[in-house]
Amino acid sequence: MLIRRENPGDVEAVRAVVALAFAPYQAARTPGRPDGLPAEVTLLDALRADPGWLPELSLVAPAPAPAPAKAPGGGIAGHVVCTRAHVGAVPVLGLGPLSVHPDHQRRGVGSALVHAALGAAEALGAPLVALLGDPAYYSRFGFEHAETHGVTAPDPAWGEHFQVRVFERRVPPPRGPFVYAKPFSTVDGV
């Protein structure tokens, strides 16, 4: 499966994929959002305007042909992004949102995107990547409970769902409080 860096022409298709992927969960989390969009769409828009946005870590999985160009998602099967975050003063990465178009779910698209994001993060020298997600899903990629590595979640209620993937380096990984890029704390419903 091909995974590539997002191009400027992909932005609207990526927004559509994120909206479709998270729409089933939106009503239960934040009913009555005025724009009707899942919070992850608003988050992605805010991240693009934030200094923590790293364009080289915004990755897409093109949909296999034939994919109608006019269809929602415009030929994009999935998207993942890593943005600049910090553990204490040390720059690290936060992974998410990860989105897969409903027509392409359970076909390995999400796994391929996570593998590509982790490979790129490690190649760029990041000491670790953190995320909030299902431990049963993300443990297959080497994610572990963050507190195992001395990293504390922005919200203690996240418990075992806040995880880190630590990369092997000559120096030990940073320890301390994790801070996502600013939009993660300013967008309602995330």
Automatic annotation (TrEMBL):
<feature type="domain" description="N-acetyltransferase">
    <location>
        <begin position="1"/>
        <end position="165"/>
    </location>
</feature>
<protein>
    <submittedName>
        <fullName>Putative acetyltransferase</fullName>
    </submittedName>
</protein>
<dbReference type="Pfam" id="PF13508">
    <property type="entry name" value="Acetyltransf_7"/>
</dbReference>
<dbReference type="InterPro" id="IPR000182">
    <property type="entry name" value="GNAT_dom"/>
</dbReference>
<dbReference type="InterPro" id="IPR016181">
    <property type="entry name" value="Acyl_CoA_acyltransferase"/>
</dbReference>
<keyword id="KW-0808">Transferase</keyword>
<dbReference type="GO" id="GO:0016747">
    <property type="term" value="F:acyltransferase activity, transferring groups other than amino-acyl groups"/>
</dbReference>
